[in-house]
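The methods section describes the discrete structure representation at length, but only in general terms. The central task, working out the structure tokens from the amino acid sequence alone, is never made concrete. Nothing conveys this as quickly as seeing an actual entry. For illustration, here is how one protein appears when written out as sequence plus structure tokens:
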Amino acid sequence: MGLPIICLVGRPNVGKSTLFNRLSHSRQALVSDFEGLTRDRQYAEVLLDNDTQTFATIIDTGGLTNKNNLVDSSIQGQVLNALEESDIIYFIVSSRDGVIGLDLEIVSRLRKLKKNIILVCNKAEGLNPALAAEFFELGLGEPMLISAEHGQGIADLIDTTLPLLPKVTIDEIVEVEGITVAVLGRPNVGKSTLINRILGQERVLVMDFPGTTHDSIYIPFEHEGQKYTFIDTAGIRRKRSTHEKVEIFSIIKAIDALERAHVVILVLDAQVGVIEQDATLLGMIIDKGKALLIVINKWDGLDDYQKQEVKRKLEIKLSFINYASVHYISALHAFGVGKLFTPINQSYQNAGEQHSTSVLNKILEKANQDHQPPPVKGRRLKIKYVNQTDVFPPTFTFHGNHLQNVPNAYERYLKNFFINALQLTNTPIKIKYKSSDNPFRDRKNILNARQIGKKRRLMKFVKKR
């Protein structure tokens, strides 16, 4: 049995994401005065009560409306899916707005689910009981007054929730482990569609216009016994095209997802090709040293000539990142999606593998035989040995003399040589240098009486000239 699930439901801008962040002790969900910010459902495992070690999964959902447009209809579908899997529902209303018609409509839908519903009256700073009076007409019993933003009333809400939770022992709780895969790309290249195809369900909201995804959505998943966590991120645009504060926060969270990932899937649009912003994203991924797969989406929309042209241009524009494999897919029609698991697993294994010092030094010996280190400032570099000092990415430290100014060309040669020799795929390597210290540095040479006399005679001779 998994953890009990608590679903946070309500109309837009009543504080669902603020309460989600308060319960999860995080800033996982984006919060702003911007109505309708949350669109996908966001999950977090939380410790509700430390004394009884009671854990639960909470779900943040988008705001329910009575509008009949594409976005709101899709958000409603996401909310209904969350309600189906929940054990307890927090129906969140705003004490500042009072009871409005939309609250009554939502209550009538929730009653049909026949689940435990707790009426949560948010934005009730000071917890004045008079604020709760009009909410009794919703027919859900006594409202729980809270202020999610200031943390007021949260303890009472948890105390009311605990008796309603299905019993789960601590032994049944399993830590989420596995390969963390971040899906990055520009807006509207098909990132969410790709994740939905991988999962086999409409887990994240998909629309045919840019900017649908705001949050970075963390989704646990298991495939053939291997656990994964896929991260669907907001599309990253050029800085000068980013105006709204919400979008800036979304990009910050996408970059944070990049930091956390073991493997990155960069999604490109086959019909557009590689543009300046794609190159910028590639630069970010390279700087972080992440294992990388490049996925060319919407491949089915091209004819044979266009496909050849795209491949030719990719070879030119992606030549600086030759360690990453390129995969051609159609996320919409699931073409080529199932083949991504093998390179993902291989990339994770390569990026986290430890190599013995003896093997590395044999490779170094061959590298030196094929191409000796060049002289720098009249001194030839001397690399004595190498060892691995870190993983994700594999980090090799080279020890020797005069290694402070290794030429970039020779460093690229070493990287490529080691990648080929170790048969690493889709993962870069990082190189560090450590030069031997001069044992006589900062040691003053003390002259004896004979040497002092010789020095004085020499100085007299020089002055006479």
The chain has twelve helices and 17 strands. The radius of gyration is 30 Å. Residues 30-39, 169-176, 203-214, 237-249 have pLDDT under 50 and may be disordered. Residues 353-465 form a domain with the GMP Synthetase; Chain A, domain 3 fold (CATH 3.30.300.20).
